[in-house]
C-alpha cells in the first residue's frame, strides 16, 4: 500500500483504493455474504423476520440433500457438465495440436480468425442457432428424412440437444488454452519420441498431453464451470426430462417464491464450482495467475 | 507415403471439414432462414425468398425497447467498469509480489463464479435495501465481473510501461497528478478503448446473470430467449443476423486496431 501512495500521491491513491474497494466489497463480497445469509435463514412471512424463528440453520441445504428429484438433477448437472468438458476436449484436441505443431503461419492465422467469429457471437444466439437446427420440423430432421437415415422425425431437444448446444458454445474456451500450451512444445521432442519408436498414441499420451497439462486443465475448468452455471442452453434446448440445476434455482426465485432456498441452491452450485476449479488446478499444478490469460 | 499415413491424413481431413461444418452450419442455417417465407425459421422446405421478416422486425416496438435497454445498460457498464478496472490494474501493478498474488486471486474470482450466482447474490443484497431488479441492478451485476476483463487488459498494457518515464517527469518537477494525467493515461488509452469495447460486447451478450436481476426490464438477449419460447418467427433470425453482422464487423475492427498497435509497438 505504501508503494501505491508513494507512486500516485495521496489524493489519487485514495480515489483508486476507494474505487476498487467499492467493487470488491460492495459488488463482490457483500452480495456473496448476503447470499450466504439468505441461504442459512428460513423463508418466513415478513412479520416473523427477526423473530424467534429467524435463526441460522442448514435446513435449506439439507432440503436439497433430501429432496430426491432436486438431488438427482444436481448430480446430473455435475456429471453432464463434466461430460460437456470431456467431449469438448476430445473435439478440440486434434485441431489444437495441428494448429500448434503442423499448420503453416498462414493456415494458423486463417483458422484462428475463422474460429474467433462464432466466439464473438453471443451465447443466446449460438443456442438459438441450435434450436432452429434441431427443431422437430427443422432442417436436421428434414435432411435425415430425405436421405432415408430416419423414417420419422426425431425429438432432438433434451439431453442430446443440451450437450450439442453447450459443446458448441464453449468450444473456444477449450481450444485456445490447449493451443497455447501445445504451441510451446519443441517439435524436436515429438521427433525424438518418433525416432525412438513411439506410436502416435504414445507420443500424445506421454509427451504432448503432459506438456499441455496446464492448458488442458484450464480449458476443462472453464468449460465445466460455464456448463454448470448455464441457463440458456438447457432452457431452450432441453426437455422436461432434462432439467438443469440452474433451472431449479430460477424456479425457487421466480416461481416457488422461496428466495432462501434458491440462495442455498445457488450457494451449493458456487461451492461446487470453486471446489472443482481449485482441485483441478491444484492437481494440474496450475497457478491461478495463469488461468485468466 | 505409406498406406497408414494416407489413411490418417484422410481421417484428419475429414475431421477438419466436420469441425468447421459443425462450427458454421448452425449459424449459416439461422442466417439463411431469415430469408425464407416459412413462418417457422427453417431452410427446408424453402417456401420462397423474402425480406418481410426484416420489415416485421423493424415494426416490432418491443424489440426497439429491448435494444434501448441493452444500450443504456452497456453505457453504464462501461462508465462503471472502465474506471474501476483501471484503478484495480494500477493498484495491482504497484504492489509487491506477495500481496499482488493474493489480490489478483480475489480480483479474478468473479470470472470463476457461475453467471447465475453473480446475478442472484446481487439480487438478494439489494432486496435488503429494498431495491428490486431493473437496469440499475443489471449494471451492477454485469459490471462486477466485466471489471475483471478491463483489469486484465489494462494490467497487460501496464506490464510494458517504462517506469523511468514517471521518474523523469517527477525529476523535471511535474506533480504526481500531472504525471498520471499526461503520461499514464495517454499510455493506457489503447487499453482503455479496447476495455470499453469488450465491456460493451460482454454487457450486450450477457444472459445468465441478467436474467436474475432484470426485474421488469427486458434487454435484447432476454427478449430473444423469450421470443423463442413464446412465438419464434424469422424476425428473430433477422435480429440475430444483424447482431452477428455487427459483431463480426466490430471484431474485425478490433483485430485490425490490435494488429496495427502491435506493429507500432514492434517498430518502437
Automatic annotation (TrEMBL), chain A:
A Pfam match: BPD_transp_1
Subcellular compartments: Cell membrane
Keyword check for Transmembrane helix: yes
GO CC aspect terms: plasma membrane
Keyword Membrane: yes
GO BP of this protein: transmembrane transport
Keyword list, A-Z: Cell membrane, Membrane, Transmembrane, Transmembrane helix, Transport
Membrane-spanning segments: 12-34, 78-99, 105-121, 128-150, 156-179, 214-237, 262-284
InterPro entries assigned: MetI-like (IPR000515), MetI-like_sf (IPR035906)
Top-level taxon in the UniProt lineage: Bacteria
Membrane topology category: Multi-pass membrane protein
ABC transmembrane type-1 domain ranges (all copies): 74-280
Family per similarity comment: Belongs to the binding-protein-dependent transport system permease family. CysTW subfamily.
PANTHER family: INNER MEMBRANE ABC TRANSPORTER PERMEASE PROTEIN YDCU-RELATED, INNER MEMBRANE ABC TRANSPORTER PERMEASE PROTEIN YDCU-RELATED-RELATED
Name of the protein this chain belongs to: Spermidine/putrescine transport system permease protein
Source organism of this protein record: Aquamicrobium aerolatum DSM 21857
Phylogenetic lineage: Bacteria, Pseudomonadati, Pseudomonadota, Alphaproteobacteria, Hyphomicrobiales
UniProtKB/TrEMBL annotation, chain B:
Annotated membrane topology: Multi-pass membrane protein
Coiled-coil region list: none
Signal sequence annotation: none
Localization annotation: Cell membrane
GO biological process: transmembrane transport
PANTHER family per the UniProt record, alphabetical: PUTRESCINE TRANSPORT SYSTEM PERMEASE PROTEIN POTI
Protein name: Spermidine/putrescine transport system permease protein
Lineage: Bacteria, Pseudomonadati, Pseudomonadota, Alphaproteobacteria, Hyphomicrobiales
Amino acid at each position: 500500500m505504501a508503494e501505491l501512495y508513494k507512486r500516485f500521491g495521496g489524493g489519487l491513491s485514495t480515489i483508486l483504493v476507494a474505487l476498487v474497494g467499492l467493487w470488491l466489497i460492495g459488488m463482490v463480497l457483500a452480495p456473496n455474504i448476503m447470499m450466504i445469509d439468505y441461504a442459512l435463514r428460513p423463508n418466513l412471512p415478513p412479520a416473523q423476520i427477526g423473530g424467534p424463528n429467524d435463526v441460522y440453520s442448514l435446513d435449506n441445504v439439507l432440503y436439497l440433500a433430501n429432496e430426491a428429484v432436486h438431488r438427482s438433477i444436481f448430480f446430473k448437472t455435475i456429471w453432464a457438465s463434466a461430460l460437456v468438458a470431456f467431449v469438448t476436449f476430445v473435439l478440440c484436441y486434434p485441431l489444437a495440436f495441428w494448429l500448434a505443431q503442423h499448420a503453416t503461419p498462414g493456415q494458423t492465422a486463417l483458422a484462428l480468425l475463422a474460429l474467433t467469429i462464432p466466439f464473438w457471437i453471443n451465447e443466446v444466439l449460438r443456442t438459438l442457432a441450435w434450436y432452429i437446427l434441431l427443431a422437430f420440423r427443422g432442417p436436421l430432421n428434414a435432411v435425415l428424412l430425405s436421405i432415408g437415415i430416419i423414417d420419422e422425425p426425431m425429438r432432438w431437444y433434451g439431453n442430446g440437444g443440451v450437450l450439442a448446444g453447450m459443446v458448441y458454445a464453449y468450444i473456444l474456451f477449450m481450444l485456445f488454452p490447449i493451443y497455447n500450451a501445445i504451441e510451446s512444445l519443441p517439435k524436436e521432442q515429438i521427433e525424438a519420441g518418433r525416432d525412438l519408436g513411439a506410436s502416435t498414441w504414445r507420443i500424445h499420451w506421454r509427451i504432448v498431453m503432459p506438456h499441455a497439462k496446464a492448458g488442458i486443465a484450464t480449458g476443462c475448468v472453464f468449460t465445466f464451470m460455464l456448463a454448470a452455471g448455464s441457463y440458456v442452453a438447457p432452457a431452450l434446448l432441453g426437455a422436461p426430462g432434462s432439467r438443469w440445476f440452474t433451472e431449479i434455482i430460477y424456479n425457487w426465485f421466480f416461481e416457488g417464491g422461496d428466495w432462501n432456498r434458491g440462495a442455498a441452491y445457488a450457494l451449493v452450485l458456487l461451492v461446487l464450482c470453486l471446489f472443482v476449479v481449485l482441485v483441478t488446478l491444484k492437481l494440474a499444478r496450475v497457478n491461478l495467475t495463469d488461468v485468466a490469460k | 507415403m505409406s498406406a497408414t499415413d494416407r489413411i490418417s491424413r484422410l481421417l484428419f481431413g475429414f475431421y477438419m471439414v466436420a469441425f468447421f461444418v459443425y462450427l458454421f452450419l448452425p449459424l449459416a442455417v439461422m442466417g439463411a432462414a431469415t430469408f425464407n417465407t416459412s413462418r417457422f425459421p427453417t431452410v427446408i422446405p424453402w417456401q420462397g425468398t423474402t425480406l418481410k421478416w426484416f420489415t416485421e422486425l423493424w415494426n416490432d416496438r418491443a424489440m426497439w425497447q429491448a435494444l434501448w435497454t441493452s444500450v443504456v445498460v452497456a453505457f453504464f457498464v462501461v462508465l462503471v467498469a472502465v474506471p474501476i478496472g483501471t484503478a484495480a490494474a494500477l493498484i495491482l501493478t504497484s504492489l509487491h509480489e506477495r500481496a499482488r498474488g493474493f489480490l489478483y486471486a480475489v480480483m479474478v474470482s468473479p470470472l470463476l463464479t457461475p453467471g447465475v450466482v453473480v446475478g442472484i447474490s446481487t439480487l438478494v443484497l439489494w432486496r435488503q435495501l429494498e431495491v428490486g431488479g431493473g437496469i440499475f441492478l443489471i449494471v451492477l451485476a454485469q459490471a462486477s465481473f466485466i471489471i475483471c476483463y478491463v483489469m486484465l487488459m489494462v494490467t497487460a498494457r501496464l506490464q510494458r510501461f517504462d517506469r523511468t518515464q514517471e521518474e523523469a517527469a517527477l525529476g523535471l518537477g511535474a506533480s504526481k497528478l500531472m504525471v498520471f494525467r499526461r503520461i499514464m493515461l495517454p499510455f493506457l488509452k489503447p487499453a482503455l478503448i479496447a476495455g470499453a469495447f469488450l465491456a460493451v460486447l460482454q454487457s450486450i451478450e450477457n444472459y445468465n446473470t441478467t436474467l436474475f436481476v432484470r426485474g421488469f426490464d427486458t434487454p435484447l438477449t432476454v427478449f430473444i430467449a423469450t421470443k423463442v419460447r413464446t412465438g419464434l418467427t424469422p424476425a428473430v433470425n433477422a435480429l440475430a443476423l444483424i447482431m452477428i453482422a455487427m459483431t463480426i464487423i466490430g471484431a474485425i475492427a478490433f483485430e485490425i486496431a490490435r494488429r496495427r498497435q502491435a506493429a507500432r509497438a514492434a517498430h518502437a
